[in-house]
Amino acid sequence: MKLIERAGMAALYRFDPETAHGLALRALRMGLAPLPGPVTSDRLRTRVAGLDLTNPVGIAAGFDKNAEALDALQRSGFGFIEVGAATPRSQPGNPKPRLFRLTEDQAAINRFGFNNEGMQSIGARLARRPKNMVLGLNLGANKDSQDRAADFAKVLEHCGPHLDFATVNVSSPNTEKLRDLQGKDALSALLAGVMETRAMLERPIPVFLKIAPDLDAQGIEDVADVALSSGVAGVIATNTTLSRDGLKSAHAAQAGGLSGQPVFEKSTRVLARLSYFTQGKLPLIGVGGVGSAQQAYEKIRAGASAIQLYTALVYGGITLGADIARGLDRLLERDGFANIADAVGTEREKWL
Is 188 a catalytic residue? Predict the structure, then answer.
């Protein structure tokens, strides 16, 4: 991390976390943040669900909810960017405060509740997106919706023409009963509607499914069955957890989803089990607690074809993604892998 980035982060820590997040996005838009540009190599370049990635390190949804900083993010060194979640109508989300730093745990707890400006505003920004990036949108449902399954399809229909991929997010713990859609029958019906909408797009794009880390063994197997039969392009594992095991921070008892370092082991075990049940038939994207090249490498070797991070940026800065990609390149070279794809799943059993 450069001195200017370290100084900027120290200044941001003086604000409450949500205000600091907004200021960080503003700094990106104004060109005040150090951006490394593309990071790639023959080892890092990979193809995931038909998407050609310069490297397998992506920014997870939630960092840029409203697609406000796309021009800057395409120069940030990440191989792909996911924005959102977007819902059909704008909504304020849950009351503040709703984001908490758990510095002692290198973690965060949020209970945002899908606050966003809605698909009309977000779609307008997506229409002006830079073309030289791989860009996805996390699809969400309005809190007061009478048909949440239909909401996902609405957002995809409206925003799909401007995207490279989309993600069906049924794993946020902050919208009441949303996770109920992870049940086998409900999930099958939801995905059928989304995939029908996808087929009607002029340019059908890959659709991913994002799941929670709190599924039991049967739930993971059910998700694998539905994912394989539904036509989705892959699974993103995982979102935040409701668990609070082993936390040290004073904010540990706050309600919401926990992300960051404490989620790494749990999310990686879910990833490995999902890899086992899908047997390499679907690409998986590993998320949860990635804060270093070594952790990214462990996700890859547990079964992920690519990884995403978000919370670690709070502690490592926007250049962390490029640092992780470079470190991942060195680890692949050290172990004799010619390409990232050759390393996928090579230590899955370790996590089962």
Answer: no
Percent of residues in the chain assigned helix, strand, coil, to nearest 5: 40, 15, 40
- Taking every pair of Cα atoms in the chain, the longest distance, rounded to a whole number of angstroms, is 53
Pairwise CA distance, residues 284 & 300, whole Å: 9
Categorize the per-residue pLDDT at 175 as very low, low, confident or very high, splitting at 50, 70 and 90. low
351 inside domain: no
- DSSP label at 257? E
Instruction: Flag whether 352 is in a domain.
Output: no
Domain count along the chain = 1
Q: Is 32 helix (H, G, I), strand (E, B) or coil?
A: coil
Q: Which domain holds residue 235?
A: 38-341
Crossing angle of helices 118-126/148-159, nearest 10°? 30
> What's the chain's Rg over C-alpha atoms?
18
Determine the 3-state secondary structure of 340 from DSSP. Answer: helix
Cα torsion angle, 114, 119, 120, 121, sign: positive
Could you tell me if 168 and 191 are in contact, meaning their C-beta atoms sit under 8 angstroms apart? yes
- Yes or no: say if 94 and 174 are a contact pair by the CB < 8 Å rule: yes
- DSSP character at residue 180: G
By DSSP bridging, strand 107-110 and strand 234-237 are unpaired
Domain of residue 164, CATH code? 3.20.20.70
pLDDT (tens digit, 9 = 90+) per residue, 304-334? 999 999 999 999 999 999 999 999 999 999 9
pLDDT number for residue 6: 87
Residues 6+ positions from 267 with CB-CB distance below 8 Å: 213, 237, 238, 241, 286, 287, 288, 289
Using alpha carbons, select from 64, 117, 125 the residue that is nearest to residue 91.
117
Q: Summarize pLDDT for 187-234 with one digit per residue, the tens.
A: 898 999 999 999 999 999 999 999 999 999 999 999 999 999 999 999
Compute the residue count for the chain: 352
Q: Helix, strand, or coil here: 78? A: coil
Give the pTM: 0.96
Catalytic, out of 76, 145, 172, 305: 172
In order of 173, 174, 252, 263, the CA distances from 246 in angstroms are 20, 22, 9, 11
